[in-house]
Design a protein that fits this description.
Layout: E1 3-4, E2 23-32, E3 38-45, E4 54-62, E5 65-71, E6 79-84, E7 89-92, E8 99-105, E9 111-118, E10 124-131, E11 139-140, E12 148-153, E13 158-163, E14 169-174, E15 181-185, E16 192-193, E17 199-204, E18 210-215, E19 222-227, E20 235-237, E21 243-247, E22 250-254, E23 264-268, E24 277-282, E25 287-293
Parallel strand pairs: 1-7
Antiparallel strand pairs: 2-3, 2-25, 4-5, 5-6, 6-7, 8-9, 9-10, 10-11, 12-13, 13-14, 14-15, 16-17, 17-18, 18-19, 20-21, 21-22, 22-23, 24-25
């Protein structure tokens, strides 16, 4: 069971009204054999401290520390927590009147950013940043953009944004300038930076054809890597550059260096009780955090 080492930022005054699904968070180890085949093992549950609630959107700070967005029993807003896997301690990173989602380590290694969701008649979802040492209470990164669903840091100054719209838009923006430039529409919620600094994302070309793509960070030209697993938009990129995705209880891998490659099953995790895998996050030492959504 997790210990508790909580650091509070603000006192919660006004609860939000967000409805979030119940999720479980698991940890596994990925290893690759001499034939380059991936194996998954060493399971553990990371969400026992928040059982039957929302523990989601894992992001690695280092190989032993995960940031997650969580809504605890009896609460109506999401806060960010840090899970220390080395000593099994829990640290509360935010406690605000708003909900914080999508914790992301910033390139400077000293801050993390989130999507802060302020509830009201109008959509207000902004990128905020907080110091990891909690030396101050955080600040808006892009205060003029209030329809951000998800974000990804490409450099210390440039971000890729999923803008909430119909359909959703892909935009790039520099934090210093603050004016978004839209480059695509009908995208998935998962945005990842590749080793080369490009953006990986899902383009929902139609109701039935979704593609995993990369977009060059300088030319903004996109390239199709592979069709996604049917109806799936969440993926992670491992340290070797392989892409991982899941459908139901099965984890798959795609090798982008092999132009003829398709999604290859790694393992059916139903033997560990998983049935509806959504978000994934992989550390530099191939530890994989997996979210299983209930219902």
């Amino acid at each position: 069971m997790w210990g508790f080492n909580l650091f509070l930022v603000w006192i919660c005054i006004v609860p939000s009204i967000a409805q979030v699904p119940k999720t479980d968070l698991y940890l596994f180890q990925l290893t690759q054999d001499d034939t380059l085949r991936w194996h998954i093992h060493s399971p553990s549950v990371l969400s026992n401290w928040n059982q039957d609630n929302y523990t989601n959107q894992p992001a690695w700070f280092d190989n032993n520390t995960l940031l997650v967005s969580a809504q605890r029993n009896g609460e109506t807003q999401n806060d960010i927590f840090s899970l220390n896997l080395h000593d099994n301690t829990l640290r509360k990173m935010t406690e605000t009147p708003e909900s914080e989602f999508s914790p992301t380590l910033m390139p400077d290694g000293k801050h993390f950013s989130v999507i802060r969701q302020v509830h009201g008649e109008e959509v207000d979802q902004q990128v905020f940043q907080f110091p990891l040492d909690l030396s101050y209470s955080g600040q808006a990164v892009l205060p003029q953009i209030q329809n951000v669903g998800y974000h990804c840091w490409l450099t210390s100054n440039e971000l890729a944004l999923f803008l909430v719209d119909e359909p959703a838009k892909l935009a790039f923006v520099t934090a210093s300038e603050g004016t978004p430039r839209i480059y695509s529409s009908s995208i998935g919620r998962c945005l990842r930076r590749t080793e080369s600094g490009d953006l990986a994302y899902v383009h929902k070309y139609s109701d039935t054809f979704w593609f995993l793509k990369t977009m060059n960070s300088e030319t903004r030209k996109s390239e199709i890597l592979v069709e996604t697993l049917y109806g799936k938009e969440d993926f992670a990129i491992g340290p070797t550059g392989d892409y991982f995705m899941a459908s139901g209880s099965v984890l798959y891998v795609f090798h982008p260096q092999n132009k003829d490659s398709k999604w290859i099953p790694v393992f059916d995790l139903s033997v560990f009780g998983l049935s509806n895998i959504t978000r994934l996050a992989i550390s530099e030492e191939n530890r994989i955090a997996i979210v299983d959504q209930k219902g």
